[in-house]
Amino acid sequence: MTKYDTDYTNYPVCPYCGHEHDDYVYAEGSEDYDCEACGEEFSIEPDVEITYTTSCKTHDYSDFREAKGMKFEVCTRCGAVRSA
Fold first, then answer.
1. Which is nearest to 24 in space by CA: 59, 32, 70?
2. What pTM was estimated for this model as a whole?
3. How far apart are CA 34 and CA 32, in angstroms?
4. Which of 25, 32, 34, 75 has the highest CB neighbour count under 10 A?
5. Are residues 11 and 47 in the same domain?
């Protein structure tokens, strides 16, 4: 544990000086990196989370609804909604 927040951050953070490397370009796998602020070398281990978004390939917008004066079409296959 370091005095700086270095776990699961949006950018690599130097564990020696706390500098956030917001210009870092992701590389697959672990690597050693020189801090541009203090010059110390530290290790970067990327934590990657993959998420997915799916929808049906062919929508069937045959269900029509109205709410608060707005009309919508709803896909009967997957529930996707679009304005009518």
1. 32
2. 0.59
3. 7
4. 75
5. yes
